[in-house]
């Protein structure tokens, strides 16, 4: 069974990787200093951004496995549990990591934005693959944060470090946008599967049994994290995944309204709405008129 480690503090993570603790709430970790290890399970109470330089087994989050090879960047947020698996032998970690406690963000501009960086919740096949130029930029920002940690802590330290973390996450957002484009053939396949999933869902009894289809349900069926799935659909269609689903529901609703043997309420229930008035409200919002008006006009 894999060893289980709970990282409650930056010091815990530093100690595990044989690195000194220069600041109680933030650190840059040289993973090559860590002792060789095999499978292990990690529970984070911290934010962690890891740049790996070696292949070291499959990294799992939940029941899924990261697309996690040399030169990839992965992100973990507090309360996440991650494990390495399929490690045939003891391996030597290599690379760098930025780790910071949520308390470090208090009083910074990043505190209000940290939840906007959805990639902290990405999982399967969703690591950020870096070009050499992008990797150099990430390492440069890591180095700036590390240099600041070696300075005596003063009133400027927190602002400078948090600004560099925010800069790092901003570049990661840009690089993910690039990755969505360069992996466009994969993304198109996911979009097609998304449409097929919705068609299958609404041609079955699932809406009456399970209710309206959710973004989380679709992401799970497509083996993606909800955040990555939502970001991908937004990039591909210009709409959020929720808007895409709502448009599909209304499109199907328009067809079913012409079945005069069913009332509008029955159509709403068949589509998975718990309350018919919710269907009427969404229909009017999307179409401009009520379902009854639409039926009468057509």
UniProtKB/TrEMBL annotation:
Which organism was this protein described from? Soonwooa buanensis
Q: Which SUPFAM superfamilies match?
A: Homeodomain-like
**Keywords (A to Z) from UniProt:** DNA-binding, Transcription, Transcription regulation
- GO molecular function (one): sequence-specific DNA binding
Query: Domain HTH araC/xylS-type, which positions?
Result: 192-297
Classification lineage = Bacteria, Pseudomonadati, Bacteroidota, Flavobacteriia, Flavobacteriales
Read off the SMART domains from this record.
HTH_ARAC (SM00342)
What protein name is recorded for this chain?
A: Helix-turn-helix domain-containing protein
